[in-house]
Amino acid sequence: MIKWLSIITLLALAAGIAIGAMVGASGNIFMADVAVQVGHIGDLWLNLLRMTVIPLVFCLLVSGVASVADAASSGKLAARSIMVFGVLLVSSTVFACFAFPLVLSIWPVDPGAAASLIADAGGQPTQAAAPPTIGEWLAALAPGNAVAAAAEGAVLPLVVFAMFFGFAATRLPQAQRAPMIAFFRAVADTMIVIVRWVLYVAPIGVFALALGVGLIAGIEIVGTIAQYLVVVSAVTAAIVPLAFLFAIVWGGAPIGRFLNATAPVLAVAISSRSSLASLPLMVERSRDAMGVPARVAGIVLPLAVAVFRMTSPVANLGVVFFCAAVFGVELSPMALVIGGFVAIAISIGSVGLPGEISFVASVAPISMAMGVPIELLGILVAVEAVPDIFRTVGNVSGDMAATVIAAKGEASQPEEAAASQPG
Question: Exposure check for the chain: N or C terminus, fewer CB within 10 A?
Fold first, then answer.
C-alpha cells in the first residue's frame, strides 16, 4: 500500500506543480484565486501531521529510552552493543554536520527558486534568531514547565525531560513500570495510526501544497527538488562505506568477507525499504557468512533494529540543512550541537516504518530545535521514498557492522569453545 501511495503522491506533486505553473502563466485571476483557496487544503493536511509531532516524540522517547535501559541491564553483551550503537550514531551525526554544509557550499541552492519557495511556504520573510549563549543554552535544557514547553514547541527541553522520564521509569518496580511504559507505547501507536490516516490522503494534501508552489515558483521548483534528492541521498548513502570502515577497522572483519555477507542484505533493504524485513537475512548472514555466534546475533540484531538507526540523524539533519539553505537561515555551531543531540535522541525513539510515515515526526522536532522553518516538509515528504531507500541501506549496513564489532572476542568464551570441540 505504502509503495503505491508513494507513487501516487509523487504524481500528485508533479501534477500540482505543473497545474499551478500553468495557472500562474495564464494570468487568469479567478483561476489563481481558486488555486490559492485549494492551497489551504494543503495547509490543513500539514497541520494534521504537525499535531502528532509532540505527543509522538515524547511517548516514543520515553518508551524507547526505557527499553534501551532495560536491555543494558540484562547483560554485558547488550550493554556493549548499546555502547557500539552510541559510537556509530555520534560518528554518523558528526559526519552529517560536516558533509551537508560542505556539499551545499559547493552546490548552493538557487536564490531565485529559494525566494519563490519562501514566498509560498512561509508567507513572510524568515529571520534567523540570534544564537543563545552557552549559559542560556544550558539553562534552557531543563523545562521549567514541561507542559508549557510542549505547547510552545520547545523540542530540546522536552526531549531532555522525556529521556530523564524514561531512565527514571527503569527504577520503578516492574509492577508499576510495565503498565506505564505500555501506556506510552499505546499513545505512540495511536499517533502512528493518525499519521497513517493522514498519509492516506497525502496525494490530496501534497497536490494542494504543490499547486500553490507551482503558482508562485513555476517549474523552477523541479530543479530544487531534484537537488534536494541528490544531496540528501548521496550523503546518506555515504554511511554505507562508513559502516564498512567501522566493521573492518574496529570489528576486524575482512573486507571481502564482510562485503559478501552484507550484499544480499542490501538487496533486500533496497527492495523492501525496511530494516525489520531485512532482519531474518541479517541474522543468517551474520552467523553463516561472518561466523558471528548465534547467541550474539540473536541479541544484537533485534536490539539494533529496535533502537539503532545509523542513518536517521544523517538523513534527518540533511532535510534540515537543505531547508535552512532555502530559507537563508545561518546555522551556528550551537545550533549544530543542539540539532545533533535532538537527531540522535529522535533516532532512538523512532519507529521502524517507511520514511513517509515517520518523516514529519522525525524531522520537525530537529528543525524546530535548530530554528529552521518546517513549512517545506509537506512538500518534501512527497519524495521521501527516494532518500528512504538510502536510509534503509545505511541502517542495515550499520546493523551488520555493529554486530561484528559487538561479537569481537565473544567466540572465545567457554561455551563457544566447548561447542567447537569434536564429540
Answer: C
